[in-house]
Amino acid sequence: MTSRGPIEVAVTRGGVIESVHRVHAVIAGPDGIATHVFGDAGRPTFPRSSIKGLQALPLVETGAAARFGVSPRELALACSSHEGEHMHVDAVTAWLDRIGLGDHDLACGPQWPRRQADEIEMRCAGATPVRRHNNCSGKHTGMLATALHCGDSTAGYEHREHAVQRRVFDAFSDMLDMDVGTLPFGIDGCSAPNPRLPLDRIAAAAARYCEASTERLGATRAEACRALLAAMTAFPEMVGGTDRVDTDLIRASKGTIISKSGAEGVYVGYLPERGIGYAIKADDGNSRGSTAGLWHVLETLGLLDDGLRALLRPHCLPEIRNWAGQVTGRVELSEGN
What we know:
Blueprint: E1 2-4, E2 7-13, E3 16-28, E4 34-38, E5 44-45, H1 52-55, H2 57-61, H3 64-67, H4 72-78, H5 86-98, H6 116-124, H7 137-150, H8 163-176, E6 185-187, E7 193-195, E8 197-198, H9 199-211, H10 214-217, H11 219-234, H12 236-239, H13 245-253, E9 258-262, E10 266-271, E11 276-282, H14 287-300, H15 306-316, E12 319-321, E13 327-333
Parallel strand pairs: 1-4
Antiparallel strand pairs: 2-3, 2-13, 3-4, 3-11, 5-8, 6-7, 9-10, 10-11, 12-13
Helix pairs in contact: 4-7, 4-11, 13-15, 14-15
């Protein structure tokens, strides 16, 4: 195992360092053994939206996806933090209609689309956001479908004690190989519970997910992992959206790298062809630090060819410009990383 201090991300202005972000990262295999550690391997972390792929497992495992004809495009949406673009909102609306539910059944709150152009379009039309615009509405629609299929009440499905969340937390426990049910949890921005997990266990869970071994996970779960990874690979635009690093990385790598961001500077990644996973957390919760950390992890793994470097640099190591368009600084990896 290679172990080093945290990844340091420098923000420069005028050629000198103005700010520094410190980022923890772990790369691990499905056996739970870390191959690379940067910083604190066991750092307790709320993974936020980065573990939506795990949260979507019961949707497939229970048979809900098969019963309701959930398409691969919708499975990708269940794993997404989408932009609230038309393609996302329309897909959620159609899925809810098909299972006999509506916007009011979603527990996530209304949210304006993330892209300024989409927000302006809505405002000019005199429209206001509803719950299906929320970036987590695909995940929530999947949870509602699971509740319906299993005969659970759809009311309160977002609460920790509800059967829907118990299934999700059981999946967490199995995939992380620890009792997640005893750990502290918080409430995510979308109202669903989010457990506080060790970073190295998250990375190992991602590795087990992308290995999708029947011997390790059982046939049902292994097939669910394969189905969700295939869906994200086939429909990367549903995982994030236009100009999002997750979407761009999945599409450019043709699914050999599947990375999922989370709020407060978190990334979780799946490398299906290698059977390894990674987890990243910026100490200060700043995505500017975590995306640079993502670059460093991919570079460490030898995955950055010229094409990916050109694609990811504006996301991960961008120039900083002022309102006049002048380059005033850069985001850079500090020397010694």
